[in-house]
Amino acid sequence: MTAPAEENGGWRDLGAYLKSAGFRFATLFAVLFLAAMVGFAFMLWWGTAGTLSRQIDDAIRADALGLQEAWRSGGTAAVVDAIGERLAVDIDDHAIYLLADSAGLRIGGNLDRWPAVAQASWSWSADTVRRDGVAVPARMHHVPLGQGHRLLVGRDATDREKLRTLLSEALLWSFAVAVAFAIAGAAALRRALGERLRAASMTAGAIAAGDLTRRVPLSAQRDEFDQLGASMNAMLDRIDQLMVGIKGVSDSIAHDLRTPIARARMRLENALMSAPDEETLRAAMETTVADLDGISRVFQALLRIAEAEAGARRAAFAPFDLAQVLADAAEVYGALAEERGQHLQTSWPDKLEMVGDRDMVLQAIANLLDNAVKFTPQGGTIRLNASAPARDRREISVCDEGPGLAPEDRARAGERFFRADPSRALPGSGLGLSLVKAVAALHGGGLRLGDAQAGAERTGLEARLILSSRA
Amino acid sequence: MQILLVEDDAEVARFVKKGLQEAGHIVEHVANGRDGLFMAASEPFDLLILDRMLPGGVDGLRIVETLRGQGNKTPVLFLTALGAVDERVKGLKAGGDDYLVKPFAFAELLARIEALARRPAMEVPATRLAVADLEMDLLSRTVTRGGRRIEVQPREFRLLEHLMRHMGQVVTRTMLLEKVWDYHFDPQTNVIDVHVSRLRQKVDKGFDVPLIHTVRNAGYMIRADA
After folding, report:
1. Quick check: ipTM above 0.90?
2. How many beta-carbon pairs below 8 A join chains A and B?
């Protein structure tokens, strides 16, 4: 039972091997290499053996024309003379001539008899002929001269055949070597691919197994594989960041939502046990419902922060006019400030186009204004300004006349649930600036806190929200 | 009003059903998507309240898409725990008319349901709105009460227009934020109350009968009778 399974596995391995990208690249490489080799061999052949053949043919053609000329001027005798002359000067002993009459009998030349292959209508032929009793390979051309006489002109092709043999052998050997190189090269290529990818795939495997700290090792070559590895690492860093964010939210929930939940629970329990009448019970329940609403608002704010930090809301990015959003925020909070006897001063250009999440930006401005209204005393002034200090930069600043923020608290402002001492008595969740910070980060910017009036008794707080106007 | 409630959580369903019945509506409840789709397609309802995540292989989005595909225009309100903005957009894109995230206040749900049910009648382009002796001319954008001109800011005009279009109905603070200011955000403090009280100063001050009423634990309502 096991044997077929193993065999099966073996075939499957082979199948997987044949289907692997490495194998395909390697095969492609080998085929290209061999194709180049064949092209090279063809050019070499054409340039050497081919040239030699053409030279021989040209010489034969010229020779035959000369003898035809002699026939026309002097008949058989002139041709025989001319052949004799030419044979006399042929020191290489390569020339072949035969003049035959209509019966095929020899009149002149150095061939014993008319070769069998030269009978055909095709006037060019190649064969082994006997000349002076020696069999030699020859290239021949025969032409009819008239009165049944026929002339055959040829050249001994021994040298050419030798060259051809030599070339064929050399090419065959080099082809064999090329095939060996192609196979070896393909295998090396496949292995190199596998080796380079192994690091990435091992990292991915380790991460899939739960070790999020692993990263793809990069070589010093900075090649395509390193680029892939670098993108993978960037992706992993991002995932890591998101995980930290999620962990932050769950920690916050665990620590900071327990208190209000406990409070709500206690209130209910207390009312249940000791409320003297229905009215007290009802009042306690109403307060608890309000508590629970508060909890779900904190929850919602936490989720919004997480959404912004995760960058998930980039999907909601669209072009909008920041000036309009500022005007709406100023309108909504201006009324609130006025009710508290504060004055809201605003200034920004007519148009502040940007790309972003309109609701989130409004929420951030609203949170800053809400803080400003909360901390500014009656009769105070809140300033909301915005500008475009650079083409792709938008700055919104909110200044209040509140107690300001101690320098050591500034760094911590923006941490979830952090509340500086002076504000603990005021209502609030400690999430406002966290959300502003997250919105700023979502829009490629940041939040800077400083003194609104440095040196004054009440320094106030200047919150400067910096956004990138491009997506 | 005939309302179909598709909600798998028995406790939430019981609470919503009881509340709506007390408000005078007839409520049919099913606990899974398949039955919900069947009921919605086969019986005429005035309004559907759908959970997004439902057992039975058919979720709330599918129900709406299927109904809209069949040309069924019954108003749909999603009542769901999926609160992310993308989810809201998905719900409204699929053909939902309103989206309420759990946990919710019953008053909010009731106000939204009544606003939805009344909506088709209000789509008729009106040029004049009137509540008792308060009149609003939508063309000249003027407000008069008892023949006397009341000066309002553009935003106050929209706020009053929204209240008047939903005369006799509760309009919650969130609804005002969404419809009058056109933003989805949490204003942290009672900013809407401030704006309504300013409007009230202009509309009701100096008149015997107040028109803008605060509905405790819910929102605001404009109505003629005291």
Report:
1. no
2. 60
DSSP character string of B99-157: EEESS--HHHHHHHHHHHHHHHHHTS--SEEEETTEEEETTTTEEEETTEEE---HHHH
pLDDT tier, A6 (very low <50, low <70, confident <90, very high otherwise): very low
The Cα of A6 is separated from the nearest Cα of chain B by a number of Å equal to 42
Query: Is A332 part of a structural domain of the chain?
Result: yes
- Give the mean model confidence (pLDDT) for residues B25-52: 93
Average pLDDT of the residues in A43-58: 88
> Which residue range is the domain that position B36 belongs to?
2-122
Domain boundary among B64, B92, B122: B122
Helix (H, G, I), strand (E, B) or coil at A312: helix
Q: Are residues B14 and B111 in the same domain?
A: yes
The answer to whether the beta carbons of residues A268 and A285 sit under 8 Å apart is yes
Q: Does B151 touch chain A (CB under 8 A)?
A: no
| A chain contacts of residue B155, beta-carbon cutoff 8 Å | 331
Kindly state whether residue A71 falls inside one of the protein's structural domains: yes
pLDDT tens-digit readout, B63-106: 999 999 999 999 999 999 887 777 888 898 999 999 998 888 89
- Mean pLDDT for chain B overall: 89
Rounded distance between C-alpha atoms, residue A357 and residue A314, angstroms: 7
Domains: count for chain A: 3
Q: A260 or A437, which is more confident?
A: A437
CB atoms A359 and B105 under 8 Å: no
Domain end residue (candidates: B122, B148, B179): B122
Cβ pair A327, A363 in contact under 8 A: no
Check CB contact under 8 Å for A316 and B86.
yes
Which has more pLDDT, A398 or A130? A398
Q: Does B198 touch chain A (CB under 8 A)?
A: yes
Distances in Å between the Cα of B179 and the Cα atoms of B4, B71, B193 are: 25, 26, 15
DSSP bridge partners of B48: B4, B76
